[in-house]
Design brief:
single chain, alpha/beta, 2 domains, eight-stranded parallel beta sheet, three-stranded antiparallel beta sheet, 19 strands, binds 2-acetamido-2-deoxy-beta-D-glucopyranose
Length: 453
C-alpha cells in the first residue's frame, strides 16, 4: 500500500536531518524507514500499526490542562488536542489509550479538559491531492476551528482512476479499495488532520445518492427494493457492517478521529423513490437500525464516539412546522436515548424546509429546542450542518449567539471552503471562503464558543 502520509511528512520535514523526526513527523510504522527518534520536546507515539508520530511532550511531564484545551488551533500550537499525554509509560509499540475525545455530561472532553466543537464540514477532502488537503486544513486551523466533518464513504459501480472511492460493487459483491485511489486517500486526510491538530467526525454512508450511499447497497443487494430497505434487509445490513469492519477497524486506535456517524441525513425515503409503508415515519424503523449499527461499531471500536448524523427531526403532537412533524422517520428525542449513541446531531436548512420567509427566527427556535433536548438527555448535542444562501452574516451571527447562550454543545458550519490548486472548493450556495465577508464572522464565533467552553 502506498502510504502518502510518508511523503507528506517528508515534505514537512524536508529541512530537518533524518536522524530525528520533527515534531508531528512520522517516527515509525510498517514500512517506515526514516528516523525513529523524535526532536527534543516530543515523544514517538504509537498511533496504529502503520504510523507512529512525534507528539509534543516528554516522557515524564503531564501536559497542563490548558495546553490540552480546545484553544488549540493556531499554528504555533497545532495539536495540543491530540497531545495524548505523549504516553508516559507506554513502551513503544503499545497503543496509547488516552487522547480520544470523550463525552462528559453535555460536554466533550479530551485529556481531562473541555474539548469544544467549533468546526466545519469538508466532505470533499479525500478527493483532493495531499497538497490541497494541507491547504484546506491550514485555512481551517487559521480560522481557529477544531473539528471537521467529512465523508468516509464513496460507493462506485465502475472503477475510477481519480479522487477516492472505498468500495466498488459488481453483481452484488463489494470490494474494499486498497488501491491508489482507495483508502490510502483517507489515510492522507487523517494524517493531515493529525498534523494540524484537527479532529474528524466521519460519516460512513449517505442518504443521498451523492458518492453512492445507501441506494447502491439497496440496488446491488435488494434490486427494486425501496430506499428504506437499507435499514431492514439482512443482506444489506451485513454488507454495511462488513464495510464498517474494514473502514472503522482500520482507524480504531487513531485518536484524530473524534466520532463515527451512522449516515449522513438518514431518512425513510430516498433518491430512488418513496419509502415503503414498512418504514415507520414516526421513527421506530431508523431507531432500531441505529441501535444495531451503533452497537456494532462499538463492538469493533470501543475507542470512538458514535452519533447518528441526522437532521434532528422532532415528533411533536402539534407540530408548528414540518421539521417537528412525523414524516421522514427520525425521532430525535428517542434516538438520543440509545446508549450506543454518544451525542446528538441536527441540521438547519430553513430555506429547504419551507421556512424561507422566517429563516432567522425559525433557526433560533430550532437551536433552542435542541438545546432543551440536550439538557433532558444529558448528552452533548451539536448543530453539525447549517446554511442559508442569503443574509448569511446576519443570520449566522444570531444563530451563533443562540448556540452560546442556550448552552448547545457545539456547531459545524456548512461549509468553509478553500481555494485549492484547481480553484475554489465546490460552492453549493453555502460555501464561505477565507477572503469573503462571512469567514471572519465564523472565526469570531469559534473564538467566542471556545471562550464559553
Ligand atoms: C488497536 O489496539 C488494540 C488493543 O491493543 C489491538 O488489539 C488492535 O489490533 C489495534 N487495532 C489497530 C487497527 O491498530
Ligand atoms: C434522501 O434522498 C432523497 C433525494 O435524493 C430526498 O428525497 C430525501 O429528502 C433525502 N433526505 C435527506 C435527509 O437527505
Ligand atoms: C417564525 O418562527 C418562530 C419560531 O419558530 C415563530 O415563533 C414565529 O411565529 C414564526 N413567524 C412566522 C411569521 O411564521
Amino acid at each position: 500500500m502506498a502510504f502518502r502520509r510518508a511523503a507528506l511528512f517528508a515534505l514537512l520535514s524536508a529541512a530537518v536531518a533524518l536522524a530525528q523526526s520533527p515534531i508531528y513527523g512520522q517516527c515509525g510504522g510498517e514500512g517506515w524507514t526514516g528516523a525513529t527518534t523524535c526532536a527534543t520536546g516530543s515523544v514517538c507515539t504509537f498511533s496504529n500499526d502503520w504510523y507512529s508520530q512525534c507528539i509534543p511532550g516528554s516522557a515524564t511531564t503531564t501536559p497542563s490542562p490548558t495546553s490540552a484545551s480546545s484553544a488549540k488551533a493556531p499554528s504555533s500550537s497545532p495539536s495540543s488536542s491530540s497531545t495524548a499525554t505523549a504516553s508516559s509509560t507506554a513502551p513503544s509499540g503499545t497503543p496509547i489509550t488516552t487522547g480520544f475525545v470523550k463525552t462528559n455530561g453535555q460536554k466533550f472532553a479530551l485529556n481531562g479538559a473541555d474539548y469544544v466543537v467549533a468546526g466545519t464540514n469538508a466532505y470533499w477532502l479525500a478527493q483532493e491531492s495531499d497538497a490541497d488537503i494541507d491547504t484546506a486544513f491550514n485555512d481551517i486551523v487559521a480560522a481557529g476551528l477544531t473539528t471537521v466533518r467529512t465523508w468516509g464513504f464513496n460507493e462506485v459501480t465502475a472503477a475510477q482512476n481519480y479522487g477516492a472511492y472505498y468500495q466498488s460493487w459488481s453483481n452484488g459483491v463489494a470490494t474494499f479499495n486498497t488501491g491508489d485511489f482507495g483508502i490510502s486517500r483517507f489515510d492522507a486526510v487523517v494524517a493531515s488532520a493529525k498534523a494540524h491538530g484537527i479532529h474528524l467526525i466521519v460519516a460512513l454512508t449517505n442518504n443521498w445518492s451523492d458518492y453512492g450511499g445507501m441506494d447502491v447497497y439497496v440496488s446491488q443487494l435488494n434490486p427494486g427494493g425501496t430506499h428504506d430497505t437499507f435499514y431492514t434487509n439482512a443482506k444489506v445490513i451485513a454488507a454495511y457492517q462488513n464495510y464498517i469492519k474494514e473502514f472503522v477497524g482500520r482507524y480504531a486506535n487513531e485518536s484524530t478521529i473524534m466520532a463515527w456517524e451512522l449516515a449522513n441525513e438518514p431518512r425513510c425515503s430516498g433518491s430512488t423513490g418513496s419509502a415503503s409503508s414498512a418504514c415507520d415515519t414516526t421513527g421506530s424503523t431508523i431507531n432500531a437500525w441505529a441501535q444495531t449499527i451503533s452497537a456494532y461499531i462499538k463492538s469493533i471500536d470501543p475507542n470512538h464516539l458514535v452519533a447518528m448524523g441526522d437532521e434532528g427531526w422532532f415528533q411533536e403532537a402539534n407540530p408548528p412546522t414540518y421539521p417537528y412533524a412525523p414524516g421522514v422517520g427520525i425521532d430525535f428525542v428517542k434516538n438520543l436515548q440509545i446508549s450506543t449513541l454518544d451525542f446528538g446531531t441536527f441540521h438547519s436548512y430553513p430555506e429547504s424546509w419551507g421556512q424561507q420567509a422566517n429563516e432567522s427566527a425559525w433557526g433560533l427556535q430550532w437551536i433552542a429546542d435542541h438545546a432543551t433536548a440536550q439538557v433532558n438527555a444529558n448528552k452533548p448535542v451539536i448543530l453539525e450542518e447549517f446554511g442559508v444562501t442569503v443574509n448569511q452574516a446576519t443570520i449566522y451571527t444570531g444563530w451563533w449567539n443562540e448556540i452560546i447562550s442556550s448552552g448547545l454543545t457545539g456547531d459545524l458550519i456548512w461549509q468553509a471552503g478553500s481555494v485549492l490548486s484547481n480553484g475554489p472548493t465546490a460552492n453549493d450556495g453555502y460555501a464561505v471562503y477565507p477572503t469573503g465577508t462571512v469567514y471572519p464572522v465564523m472565526e469570531s464565533a469559534a473564538a467566542a464558543l471556545k471562550k464559553r467552553g
